[in-house]
Amino acid sequence: MADCYIDELTSPVSGVGTYIGQVSPQPSLAVQKITIGASTQSTAFNAKTNCVEIVADGACHYSFGESPTASTSTGYLPANIVRRFAVIPGQKIAIST
């Protein structure tokens, strides 16, 4: 089975407050792993999480929200491609085939 990894991060900003879009601040606040299959929700994002980086070793669909459901009509993530998203703390991501 393929898995999707969700890396929870704080906003990538420099010391002077300028956004740096390609930099992932470390260490991660949390890393979650979801097995790709029927729509499955992550746990709620950390209170300090406002950016996530996701990558999966198999193609999948994703959706964000308070109680999201992923399906073929939601966002698509090709296998082995890293994507970054701004998120709201406390929300979740759902992953499905």
Explain this structure.
With 97 residues, the protein is mainly β. The protein is built from no helices and eight strands. It has strands at residues 3-9, 30-35, 40-41, 51-56, 60-65, 75-77, 83-86, 92-96. The strands form two sheets. The chain has a four-stranded antiparallel beta sheet with strand order 2-1-4-7, with no helix packed on it. The mean pLDDT is 90.
- Helical content class: under 10%
Oligomeric state, counting identical vs distinct chains: single chain
Strand order of the largest sheet: 2-1-4-7
What percentage of amino acids are in beta strands?
35-45%
Which of globular, elongated, flat, extended, rod-shaped describes the shape?
A: globular
First-residue to last-residue Cα separation:
11 Å
Along the chain, the helix and strand elements come as EEEEEEEE
Compute the CA-based radius of gyration: 13 Å
The largest sheet is:
4 strands, antiparallel
Structural class: mainly beta
Total strands: the figure is: 8
Q: What ranges have pLDDT less than 50 throughout 5 or more consecutive residues?
A: none
